[in-house]
Amino acid sequence: MVKKNLKSEYHKLVDLKRQEALHDHCGIFGIYAPGEDVAKITYFALHSLQHRGQESAGMAVSDGRKLRGIRNLGLVTSVFNENNLSKLKGFIAIGHNRYSTTGSNTKDNIQPVILASKHKVFSLAHNGNVINAKMLNSQFKHMKRSASSDSEVITQAIYRAPGSKWREKIMNAAPHFIGAYSIIACSKKRMYAFRDPWGIRPLCLGRLKGYYVLASETCAFDTIGALFERDIKPGEIIEIYKNKINILGYIDNLGKKPSFCLFEYVYLARPDSILNNMLVHEARKKSGQILAKEAPVKADLVAAIPDSGTSAAIGYASALGIPFGEVMIKNRYIGRTFIQPEQHVRELGVKIKFNPMKQILEGKKIVIVDDSIVRGTTIKKIVEILKKNGAKEIHIRICSPPVKFPCYFGVDTPNKKNLIASEMRVKKIKKFIKADSLHYLSLSGLVEASGQGKNSLCTACFSGRYPIKIDTHFNKHILEDS
């Protein structure tokens, strides 16, 4: 019993930072490129989108006659290799990295979803959360179903929609989906992409050697040498065939206000991606500069919790003329070992993942900048470690407003009661984490930093104002008992 408790405690401590973070649903990618090695290109694109999902990875490739796929649990580098990629020959490929927000992390829920029925072949990769999936799923009661994700429900809804061609089925099915969905799909000869009319999750279009590519973020284009062209518009449905784009139409947006996820700028997207014509690094840097005006402090050094707060910390430091530096080194590989450490190492907790530099900390007043506080457990432990290693004062600056409400549109957030800011005021949080001061960026400051209009963003996790009427009892396993 003692041994079991020690083991579970070790895992809890090692994964503190990962658990504390808010996770996006998925990263998706698509390419239509006759004559190119689309499987290998997709592999590298998925590698650059790994931050959006680390539970499983997959791709489907079509040569015009057959559609083949590889899907498995694990990171991109463990799912794909030279041998299995060499077997995926074709001119269309769609790929997916998954973090489960609807449906468990099982092999049955790995994407892309591949449907083969009555001589029809179709594959689909989805980022987001369709909140009426249970209602849609009730229409398929007689269908034998092994998966429990909203993405399979979307695929089945398209398959069963009126129309003889896939483009007709997509046009007829898409208006019935409520929630967040950026989708890349393909048949044997065509690739499709469409986005919910609220435009909640990102989806962009690029060109590679004259061919078309699609991705959740532009960082994927940089990796494969593609050029960013434009974002897929909210509600837009496109078809790519014979290397030409056909805009099939738009999902009715009557009464649907554009609501791009503001948290993409805070944490979810890579800093080198461009979202709505704004470089994410610049948005985060500006958030730090605005935070410096809202909550200045006299200190010796500004540092970030690696790596999510770095851009904002640079902005904060530059605005106040305080040196920016590192006080902790992150061990990026500790979470990938299957070897259990000795007991005394287990007890070190967060130090396994973040190693403080005592010589720099000694007697200093330090400002730590981070993207958000979710449960408060990680930042509390980090403050404790930094003070134990000689820091005179620790001032915490968060480059987003307090996260008080759960997300239902593709970000895996804890229940409201597990969000520390929904249970405690800022003064009480400061006391809980034992910081010398604590300040969050205002919502207006974050909106300003994003460079977007305040009426074009979803701020629900901060404000509780959801762009779509939601069932607050919704949970990620909602389809498993259906």
From TrEMBL:
Output the InterPro entries linked to this UniProt entry: GATase_2_dom, Ntn_hydrolases_N, PRTase-like, PRTase_dom, PurF, PurF_N
**E.C. number(s) listed in UniProt:** 2.4.2.14
Instruction: Please give the catalytic activity noted in the UniProt record.
Output: 5-phospho-beta-D-ribosylamine + L-glutamate + diphosphate = 5-phospho-alpha-D-ribose 1-diphosphate + L-glutamine + H2O
The EC class name is transferase
Glutamine amidotransferase type-2 domain segment(s): 26-243
Which parts of the sequence bind [4Fe-4S] cluster?
Answer: 261, 407, 458, 461
Q: Tell me which residues bind Mg(2+).
A: 308, 370-371
Task: Enumerate the cofactors the protein uses.
Answer: Mg(2+); [4Fe-4S] cluster
Q: Which CDD domains match?
A: GPATase_N, PRTases_typeI
What are the protein's UniProt keywords? 4Fe-4S, Glutamine amidotransferase, Glycosyltransferase, Iron, Iron-sulfur, Magnesium, Metal-binding, Purine biosynthesis, Transferase
**Record-linked Pfam families:** GATase_6 (PF13522), Pribosyltran (PF00156)
NCBIfam families listed in its UniProt record: purF
Q: Which protein family is named in the record?
A: In the C-terminal section; belongs to the purine/pyrimidine phosphoribosyltransferase family.
**Function of this protein?**
Catalyzes the formation of phosphoribosylamine from phosphoribosylpyrophosphate (PRPP) and glutamine.
Output the HAMAP family linked to this UniProt entry.
PurF
Q: By what name is this protein known?
A: Amidophosphoribosyltransferase
